[in-house]
Structures are given as C-alpha cells and as structure tokens.
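Sequence in, structure out. Go.
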Amino acid sequence: MFFFSVRPVFSAIATPAYDQISSHTKNVFADHQLVFRTPAGVDEPTDTVTLSLPDFIFGSVGLSDIDLHYGSTTGFENATSIAAAPGVDVWGATVAGTAITLTAPTNAASGTVNPYAYIAVRIGINAGGTNQLKNPASAMQARITIGGTFGDS
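Output:
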C-alpha cells in the first residue's frame, strides 16, 4: 500500500519568457538567448535558477559557454561572473544532462535581482564560448522549463 502526501506549491510564473535561437534548422548547433522576468527576484544565497532544455543536445557545453545577466529593462543591464561554485559576487553554475543550474552568490541579499527584473542567459558562441546546443533532429516544438528555488517557474 502506498500513501502520497500532496502539498501545494505556490510560485509566480516567470513571464514573459523567450528563447532567441541563432538557427531553427534541424540537427545543427545553435546559440540560445533565454530571457525571462522573475516576479520573485533573487534574494538569498540558496536561490537557484534551473533551465531545463530536454529536447536539445548539450554535447560539450560547459561554464565557459554560459553568460548570465539581469536588469530591470532588458535583462542585460548587469553582467555577472559565474564559476563552478558560488562565491562573493559570483554565481555558481552547473551543467548536468540537459539542465543548467545557476546558484546565487554567497552574499546574495534582498535586491540581488529585484522582483520583476529580467534574467538573461546566453548559451554558446554568443556567450563568448566555443560550444553550442544542438537542435533536435526532427521538427518539433522544443520544451524549455524554468524552475529552481527562487520562487518562480
């Protein structure tokens, strides 16, 4: 016999959100620029933002292929530093499977990323890297999920 406990989770929707992709051609490598608005903002060192792109092939995409910005108008007003682990004024970033998890700096506090600000993530050559995500082999609407512990989804 199994028992399930269901606990509602309340979060704001990270919208508007879009992915500007450098090529829509099937089975080719492409840059991505994901931008979304965060109603909750980022205000604690334990806050994470997870981008899941299950329909794309990550291949050799790593930290040097990822760029993170945020701001109140376009999302590109403030550049950040990223590393394998978060630090003072440094965001942590990990790539695992088809997901990128960004962890707020260890000194994150109220106003690190204000509520209703935009977060922009570039993946690929457009981020100063050398690796890109590979598009799906067949024509489809590719899924991208925004989640994490920062209060939005």
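Check: The first strand starts at residue 17 and ends at 21. The mean pLDDT is 87.
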